[in-house]
Design goal:
Order of helices and strands: EEEEH
Largest sheet: 4 strands, antiparallel
Shape: globular
Number of strands: 4
Number of domains: 1
Number of helices: 1
Helix content: 10-25%
Length: 67
């Protein structure tokens, strides 16, 4: 499977309905990218896919995360 060089962004289903807190996501080469949809040229947070899944599980209460 070829790796995309340009991310294909989509609006997160968890973004707020008021239009003021929109998050966009993209999957590229085993990583997930997150950015503010109002600032498309701004900073992007990139994490490995397995780390993102662990983060989501922790938010859902399936895993206890300790520091």
């Amino acid at each position: 499977m070829a790796v995309r060089s340009e991310p294909r962004w989509f609006k997160s289903s968890y973004s707020g309905g008021s239009g003021t807190e929109c998050v966009e996501c993209s999957h590229t080469g085993g990583r997930l990218h997150v950015r503010d949809s109002k600032c498309g040229d701004g900073p992007v947070v990139a994490v490995r896919a397995h780390a993102w899944r662990a983060f989501i599980r922790a938010l859902e209460g399936d895993t206890l995360v300790t520091g």
